[in-house]
Design brief:
With 239 residues, the chain is of the alpha/beta class. The chain is built from seven helices and eight strands. Helix content is 36%, strand content 20%.
């Protein structure tokens, strides 16, 4: 059985958010192709995780057997979010571009997931590369929307794209190699012209095709499982 983790970072409702529409399309198509899928939905756009603060840092860098009760409380949200990532085989992320970068809510989620002793280890004996991921083998699909256009490598605004490089740089914290990231983006959103409409159509077609491909690969590559009903846990509340 495949575990699919859906992350929505848009502040908008689904009727106004293009990225939410894409993540809905992806998950719906994936489940149609691979119904024996466990789906967990985490809505950080509407229920953002708390920002990392001094209490979080103190607790995270204290050995588990030496933590006080308040430290466990400070790390409780992080533990829940990390558990969802650990269980996931595929992460589909709705990540709109806000001011050329990622939404603050998505950065807060990454900061809660990137944690020493849970998703990475740190050892100065490794020299200039002391960080080593503790998770691996996962795939990441990034579904985005941008007000302008030309943010792909070689595009006229590629140098302003602070979203895709940041996600790729942090992907190892969720067990994703940069080669296992697939990105699809809608552009021209602020122009609302024919180019925008064409970009929506293209993104939807590519999203559905990618969902079918990944679901088929997951079904083919997995061991025989009993016919389980697809399970969706809506975790937008109760961080």
């Amino acid at each position: 059985m495949t575990n699919l983790l859906r992350i929505d970072a848009s502040a908008q409702s689904e009727d106004r958010s293009l990225t939410r529409q894409l993540t809905s399309l992806f998950t719906r198509t994936f489940l149609e192709t691979a119904p024996d899928t466990a789906l967990v939905s985490r809505d950080v756009g509407h229920s953002p995780p708390p920002f990392v603060d001094s209490r979080f840092i103190h607790a995270a860098f204290t050995a588990p057997d030496q933590r006080e009760a308040w430290m466990d409380d400070a790390l409780a949200t992080s533990d829940r979010l990390i558990d969802e990532v650990v269980a996931a085989d595929i992460i589909v992320m709705g990540a709109p571009m806000y001011n050329y970068g990622m939404p603050a809510a998505l950065k807060a989620w990454i900061d809660q997931v990137a944690r020493i002793g849970r998703t990475f280890s740190f050892d100065l004996d490794r020299g200039d590369f002391p960080i080593e991921p503790m998770l691996s083998g996962k795939r990441l699909v990034v579904l985005s929307s941008r007000g302008e256009f030309g943010f792909a490598p070689g595009g006229i605004r590629a140098r302003k794209n602070a979203l895709d490089p940041a996600i790729a740089a942090c992907a190892h914290y969720f067990g994703v190699d940069e080669t296992a990231i697939r990105s699809i983006a809608i552009e021209y959103q602020e122009f609302k012209d024919d180019r925008h409409h064409a970009s929506i159509v293209d993104a939807r077609e590519r999203t559905a095709a990618l969902a079918r491909q990944l679901a088929a690969e997951a079904s083919t590559g997995s061991e025989s499982e009993p016919n389980l009903r697809a399970l969706e846990l809506n975790l937008s509340d109760g961080m």
